Amino acid sequence: MTKQSLTFFAVAIIVSGCVSQETFVKNNMKYTDFEKDRASCETQASQQVGVNRSPGAELAVALFTGVYQVQDANAAARVRNYEACMMSRGYQRVALPACTKVQEAQRNGVGPLTAQNRVKITESSCFVSDQAGRIVFHNNTPS
Predict the structure, then answer these.
(1) Which run of H or of E encompasses 127?
(2) Cα distances (Å, whole numbers) of residue 25 to 7, 96, 116, 120
(3) Which of 62, 91, 110, 131 could form a disulfide with 117 if both were Cys (CB 3.0 to 4.6 A apart)?
(4) Nearest in space to 40 (alpha carbons), one of 88, 75, 72, 111
(5) Helix or strand (DSSP H, E) at 59
(6) 49 band by pLDDT with thresholds 50, 70 and 90
(7) Does the pLDDT of residue 100 top 50, yes or no?
């Protein structure tokens, strides 16, 4: 791997930690309710909108791009079904910024290890991922 490639990957990793993440929240929700509703809506969306890997669509993409990829023609419909399910349960889509103090947010935020706690979303709310990649909500209150 060239020095230029290594630099690109290092910059990509650094920048990826600074982007916001869209998620569904309901103010003052219990984290356990969030995870339960999310899993239920994902399951419901998967059951109601099956995978459609039509060979025609895959060949059309291959002819157009020169790359053969497995395409799921129903992926967008499944996402819309999931989003509608979450909204019907009172959730709103928000874009939360990444927390700047990662370790503090993991330690003091509301996530899988503190699942009975309530999540309070404010202007200073941010997110961080735990070691398993699950979202942890945190409030970046200025000190």
Answers:
(1) strand 125-129
(2) 36, 10, 15, 9
(3) 110
(4) 88
(5) helix 55-65
(6) confident
(7) yes
Among candidate residues 114, 132, 120, 121, the one with its CA nearest the CA of residue 32: 114
The phi and psi torsions of 136 (rounded to 5 degrees) equal -125, 125
Which pair of structure tokens corresponds to residue 52?
A: 């459609």
Q: What is the pLDDT of residues 113-136, one digit of tens each?
A: 999 999 999 999 999 999 898 999
> Tokens 């129903």 correspond to what residue?
74
Token digits of residue 50: 């099956």
User: Cβ neighbours of residue 2 under 8 Å, at least 6 residues apart?
Assistant: none
DSSP letter, residue 119: E
What per-residue confidence (pLDDT) applies to 27? Answer: 85
Q: CA 5 to CA 123: how far, in whole Å?
A: 37
Amino acid letter, residue 22:
E
Q: Which amino acid is at 40?
A: S
